[in-house]
Amino acid sequence: MISTRLIVDSDFVVSDLDRRLFGTFVEHMGRCVYTGIYEPGHPTADKRGFRQDVMALSRELGATIVRYPGGNFLSGYNWEDGVGPKDQRPVRLDLAWYSKETNQFGTNEFMEWCREIGAEPMFAVNLGTRGPDEARHFLEYCNHPSGTALSDLRRQHGYEEPHDIKFWCLGNEMDGPWQICMKTADEYGRVAKETAKLMRMVDPTVQLAACGSSKHDMPTFGTWEDKVLDHCFDEVDFISLHTYFENPHNSTAEFLGNIDQTDLFIKEIVAVADSVAARKHSHKRIMLSFDEWNVWYKARTVSDKHKPGWPEAPRLIEEVYNHEDALAVGGALIVMMNNADRVKSACLAQLVNVIGPIMTEPGGPAWRQTIFYPFSQASRYARGRVLRPIIQSPTYKAKTFPEIPYLCASVLHDDASGQTAIFALNRHLTDEQEINIELRGLGDQQRLVEASELDHADMKATNTMAAPNTVVPNRNTAVQLDGHRLTARLKPGSWNVIVTTNAKPA
Ligand code: AHR
């Protein structure tokens, strides 16, 4: 057994948490939309073709914001193809995923779906094959009340009220050679600036995110952010970052080092953005939109290869997640929460089937992958303000990161409910961890609300259609409270959620 300490004080605050940290992503890719969220004829489908089983799981997941419609798909997308009468919508070649796009699901369907699961929409404009002109028209269609050709077209399509979409991404991964119409940092920075300018003229209330690097190891990482922000610093609110965790050495200990690497990635981008601010003598601070992140390495092949016949909704990157993937996802959430002063939105990519926490079979059931649980628990309990955690823990060395504490943790306190939520990962893979927690200034008579653990003897254990409940959270009975001091035993290689309250029992 190893022993660790975690101390928080109500006066030492990282930031209020922006609940948009618990976002997800729906791309027109593989079976995320078609036979994922939308499947007319499915036994649970409503009259619009929305699968109610997937809707229920999306609500349970607790997605607060959902990015749409891509992804790489975005850079060849014409928004006009996906609105209006369905029988008049064109079928197109999707050059990003070598698939056929029927456009039976588009902007208005997404808006209905999104609002119904209780999430905010995060839209993206195509800055690959298209540019500022289409972006301003798309925004006018969506957000302008009435009395112009495009706003009246929306009304004619059955949407009298404007959609009032606040969050917009300016393109997707424009630094990537795989992108349809990739750009250099200067080319993209210029077009992002002009697009943002026009979009704000149409609707000054929008929030805009410029594309940062597609991953930390892009050769242009750092200089890309610097040059892009040099152009569009005044016009945008966010810079994006994307990360997909890999496990090249098939080593859980190495794999979990991705979590610390992500913390560094965030801090490096903040440093670059703030150096641009310094150069411009500006007090403005650019925030981070972590708008694609997940584990993705097992189902990497064939997704980007030319497929004969341009299939409709093929099975693409349907990664089956295991227990260690759930630990990595929990750890990433901890890192994002601990950087809540600068990370204001994030999207687990993607929602269904395509590297998704939810899986479906066409005509069949839907189930929760292992990674569903840390996300849904964090979304449920992480509220209020993030407290700065003081962690005293033994460490280990890995190639992915030089010094990794066995304890990875985040603590939040919500004044409204009096609840304190502790999220903790035991990264020791053979030993239990006794964690001693001091909750200073949060009330001396804490009571336990929830104590759960996600653990499994087999790091490679998965949830499948045949066995959907192999990896599920259980109650942790080894938690003791004494005033504001808490002691818990965390199983080796486990994700843990402990919630206390200072509110008097009713
Ligand atoms: O999420 C899958 C793909 O990963 C997205 O389309 C792209 O933006 C990223 O490279």
Provide the fold topology:
Layout: E1 2-9, E2 13-16, E3 23-25, H1 52-61, E4 65-68, E5 92-94, E6 99-101, H2 107-116, E7 120-125, H3 132-143, H4 149-156, E8 167-170, H5 185-202, E9 207-210, H6 223-232, E10 238-245, H7 252-255, H8 258-279, E11 287-295, H9 323-338, E12 343-349, E13 358-360, E14 366-368, H10 372-381, E15 385-387, E16 390-392, E17 395-396, E18 404-405, E19 407-414, E20 419-426, E21 433-440, E22 447-454, E23 474-475, E24 479-482, E25 485-490, E26 494-501
Helix pairs in contact: 3-4, 3-5, 5-6, 6-8, 8-9, 9-10
Alpha-L-arabinofuranose binds at residues 27, 29, 70-72, 172-173, 214, 292, 349-350.
Description of the molecule:
By secondary structure, the protein is an alpha/beta fold. It folds into two domains: 2-10 and 386-501, Golgi alpha-mannosidase II (Immunoglobulin-like), CATH 2.60.40; 19-381, TIM Barrel, CATH 3.20.20. The protein contains ten helices and 26 strands. The protein has helices at 52-61, 107-116, 132-143, 149-156, 185-202, 223-232, 252-255, 258-279, 323-338, 372-381, and strands at 2-9, 13-16, 23-25, 65-68, 92-94, 99-101, 120-125, 167-170, 207-210, 238-245, 287-295, 343-349, 358-360, 366-368, 385-387, 390-392, 395-396, 404-405, 407-414, 419-426, 433-440, 447-454, 474-475, 479-482, 485-490, 494-501. Strands 3-4-7-8-9-10-11-12 form an eight-stranded parallel β-barrel, surrounded by six helices. The two termini are 38 Å apart. 50% of the residues are buried. The model has no long low-confidence stretch (mean pLDDT 97). The structure holds alpha-L-arabinofuranose (AHR). Alpha-L-arabinofuranose binds at residues 27, 29, 70-72, 172-173, 214, 292, 349-350.
